[in-house]
From TrEMBL:
GO biological process terms, semicolon-separated: ribosome biogenesis
Protein's name according to its UniProt entry: GTPase Obg
NCBIfam families in the record: Obg_CgtA (TIGR02729), PRK12297.1 (NF008955), PRK12299.1 (NF008956)
SUPFAM superfamilies: Obg GTP-binding protein N-terminal domain, P-loop containing nucleoside triphosphate hydrolases
GO cellular component: cytoplasm
């Protein structure tokens, strides 16, 4: 499945072939039968996945989908080994997973500067100097280099946000992100304004902070691939805390929460074990009486927070609650 989103890229990779070994026989003016002195071929270049904390998306790879490493050089006379092919580094954000075309996980980048060889370069061939023996003192053959590897690699970025915003399209997630952080997500009054995840750093007390991820809106049926489907749900897996946003103009608050929770559980049952907080967004539209009515639609043990990004209502309280959940 090809994607136009920066969190999912398909690239074609080919490592370098190994250089051929040399079958050279030594010749010199006073040494008419110098024997074999062919050197080994050089190793082909690897394709190496490397974590880069300065990258946030896979967008750069959209424009370089064919990645090839250099071939190794052939061996030379006087047992000189050929130069190895130059390795190619594929820089990706932390949290990137590499899969083959069948969906098998090949590698996962979990920290900055971490390196994992995706495709090994071909081994260089042995020169004829390796094959001399008492019965074969002038071998005239050497090994060819081994071919490199080639594969189509699927790269997925799973965000490492501390708090993930969960809600239907138009729940006010992007507005909240822009109010709590310096991130500038696209905000508009229509569904799926957010097509790619946005990250923002929430500044907290005493110069502390945590990462808030505004993730593309979920819809009923997302676990079956409807709407943005798996593109949304993939990112939820790595958030420590889930903040459910339900807008104040919703018809049935508890039902909407149940639909969101159900989609998470159908995709991955472990998601419902994460710490979560429910916030009613756009609550500048509500008075105290209406807030109490909304509380009654939820079971008694549910804690609701009424917030408004526009009116800055309860945003400090929200940060306190999220911080406590992250560090309890």
């Amino acid at each position: 499945m090809q994607s136009n989103f920066v969190d999912y890229v398909k690239i074609y990779c080919k490592s370098g072939h190994g250089g051929a070994g040399s079958a050279h026989l030594h010749r010199a003016k006073y040494i008419p039968k110098g024997g074999p002195d062919g050197g080994d071929g050089g190793r082909g270049g690897h394709i190496i996945l490397r974590g880069n904390a300065q990258l946030w998306t896979l967008l750069p790879l959209k424009y370089s989908k064919h990645i090839r490493a250099e071939n190794g050089k052939p061996g030379g006379k006087q047992e000189l080994t050929g130069a190895g092919g130059e390795d190619v580094y594929v820089d990706v954000p932390v949290g990137t997973i590499a899969k083959d075309e069948l969906g098998n996980v090949l590698a996962e980048i979990e920290e900055d500067k971490q390196e994992i060889i995706l495709l090994h370069g071909g081994k260089g061939g042995l020169g004829n100097s390796h094959f001399k023996s008492p019965t074969n003192q002038t071998p005239r053959y050497a090994q060819p280099g081994l071919p490199g590897e080639e594969a189509t690699i699927l790269l997925e970025l799973k965000l490492l946000g501390d708090v993930g915003l969960v809600g239907f399209p138009n729940a006010g997630k992007s507005t909240l992100l822009s109010a709590l952080t310096s991130a500038k997500p696209k905000i508009a009054n229509y569904a799926f304004t957010t097509l790619v995840p946005n990250l923002g750093i929430v500044e907290y007390r005493n110069f502390q902070s945590f990462v808030l991820a505004d993730i593309p809106g979920i819809i009923e049926g997302a676990s079956e691939g409807k709407g943005l489907g798996y593109r949304f749900l993939r990112h939820i897996e790595r958030n420590s805390v889930l903040l459910f946003l339900i807008p104040a103009d919703t018809e049935d608050y508890y039902k909407e929460y149940q639909i969101l929770l159900n989609e998470l559980e159908k995709y991955n049952p472990e998601l419902v074990d994460k710490d979560r907080l429910i916030a009613i967004s756009k609550s500048d539209l509500l008075d105290e009486e209406l807030e109490n009515e909304i509380r009654k639609t939820f079971p008694e043990n549910f804690k609701l927070l009424f917030i408004s990004a526009v009116a800055q209502k309860n945003l400090v309280v929200l940060k306190d609650e999220l911080w406590n959940l992250l560090h309890q």
